[in-house]
Amino acid sequence: xxxxxxxxxxxxxxxxxxxxxxxxxxxxxxxxxxxxxxxxxxxxxxxxxxxxxxxxxxxxxxxxxxxxxxxxxxxxxxxxxxxxxxxxxxxxxxxxxxxxxxxxxxxxxxxxxxxxxxxxxxxxxxxxxxx
Length: 131
Hints:
131 residues; mainly beta; Jelly Rolls; seven-stranded mixed β-sheet; two-stranded antiparallel ribbon
């Protein structure tokens, strides 16, 4: 990781792929990832870890399946939300967004359990910035 400050706007400008997070730095055993998103991700679950979202630009919706009842949280620019471990969820953005996430290093973007992964979703544990 870099020993210099990292501009998140420059990091986001360095790639175009949607739903394909870039690792900008690491904190202890956690990745700090940025991603550009538009449309829908997939329903998925991270069995053993929470998932933290910070909206840098645009607006993000996260649908949650809580005990069989669905609810959606709306996150405008500057908002944060944490999806608890074991909660089935699906992020989406109708008009596009840039997000920052904290996740344990090696956490797959499609969770431990998920629906079929469509071509527009990158099933990854994150790409190093610049790759």
